[in-house]
Automatic annotation (TrEMBL):
Keywords: Membrane, Transmembrane, Transmembrane helix. It comes from the Bacteria. Signal peptide: none annotated. Residues 270-336 form the Protein FecR C-terminal domain. Residues 132-225 form the FecR protein domain. The lineage of its organism: Bacteria, Pseudomonadati, Bacteroidota, Chitinophagia, Chitinophagales. The keyword Transmembrane applies. This is FecR protein domain-containing protein. InterPro entries: FecR, FecR_C, Ferrdict_sens_TM.
Length: 341
């Protein structure tokens, strides 16, 4: 009898124990496996010995079934669901934290932008607006934000503002000032407002005074237009050398001609040409805050000619007293002018 190839195979005990087909034949009595191993055992005595040894080893192995406690599956399921819920909540926390950080960052940036905006607006406002006041006896030169030069006489107040688009430049004057307006081709105009009239600058240099319901404009160069708040008054356009005076109480407008000596106060002096004492008294009251009482009205008609420097009020009074032969005395806050005895 000729052996087949399977029957001639050589197996060790270890090979048999690890062979699935041999294990099924031993432990499960698998008939298919039996057709393999029974002929192999019968083919040689050493096969039988080897197979018996391997079978005994397999039969000695005891498999223990481990069943979990009853509460174990429930605990495991609880841990599982808790883990799942944690995994589901974690993105929500990240989103919440992200949202908080986003809002916090947005608030910080908004605050920074607000601070920067406020600083820029304040700086811009500083460049756009200006307010200047002079006291009695004080004269100040002011450079406006548009580079225009203003000489503000004593006891005066000037406010300047440029429009948001920079086109219109406006000033409000109480008192007296000499304007040398910078020609800004990008700006539409320069207007000076007084309580009784508006002066629109079409040129460069002019003298504007508004005191006691009287508005006086002297144009040194260029051109200006005067618009009165009283609708019954017709606007006036002044040429260089024109001197216009408007009395808002009497509703009277007068015009005359003069020269640049009218504005000599800008250089700190008065150039007087046949000027009556009443004119100097007005200067003392308006620019030095003096209260003057004249005992004889005729004294006011006395005239003086020449140059008086404005640096010292005492010098002015000395010249008046000696040139016009007037006795000047003071009681409390009032100065009295009278004929010299």
């Amino acid at each position: 009898m000729q052996r087949n190839k399977q029957d001639n195979e050589t197996y060790s005990v270890t090979d048999l124990v690890g062979n699935p087909s041999f294990v099924r034949w031993v432990l499960q009595h698998d008939p298919t496996a039996a057709t393999t191993w029974e002929p192999w055992i019968a083919a040689a005595p050493e096969h039988a010995t080897m197979a018996e040894t391997a079978r005994q080893l397999l039969l000695q192995v005891r498999f223990t079934t481990h069943e979990p406690p009853t509460a174990a599956p429930t605990a495991s399921y609880t841990r599982f669901t808790h883990t799942i819920s944690q995994l589901q909540q974690e993105p929500v926390k990240r989103r919440h934290l992200y949202a908080v950080l986003t809002w916090r960052n947005a608030a910080i940036w908004a605050g920074l932008l607000a601070c920067v905006g406020t600083a820029a607006w304040y700086t811009w406002q500083q460049k756009r607006t200006l307010a200047v006041t002079t006291t009695f006896g004080e004269t100040r030169q002011v450079v406006l934000p548009d580079s225009s030069l203003v000489t503000l006489r004593a006891n005066s107040r000037l406010t300047f503002r440029r429009s948001l688009n920079g086109q219109l430049r406006e000033a409000w004057l109480h008192g007296e000032a000499y304007f040398r307006v910078n020609q800004d081709k990008k700006a539409a105009g320069f207007v000076v407002h007084t309580p009784d009239a508006d002066v629109t600058v079409l040129g460069t240099a002019f003298d504007l005074k508004q005191r006691h319901h009287r508005t006086t404009v002297f144009l040194q160069s260029g051109k200006v237009r005067v618009d009165f708040h009283d609708p019954r008054q017709t606007s006036r356009i002044l040429s260089p050398g024109d001197l216009m005076e408007y009395d808002a109480q009497d509703k009277q407008v007068s015009a005359s001609r003069t020269d640049s000596s009218y504005s000599s106060w800008v250089q700190g002096k008065l150039t007087l040409v046949d000027a009556p004492l009443s004119e100097i008294i007005e200067i003392l009251e308006n620019n030095y805050g003096e209260k003057v009482v004249v005992n004889d009205e005729k004294i006011k008609q006395r005239k003086i000619e020449g140059i008086i420097y404005l640096e010292s009020k005492a010098d002015i009074l000395f010249i008046i007293s000696n040139v016009l032969d007037i006795e000047i005395s003071r009681r409390n806050d009032t100065m009295y002018f009278s004929n010299r005895k």
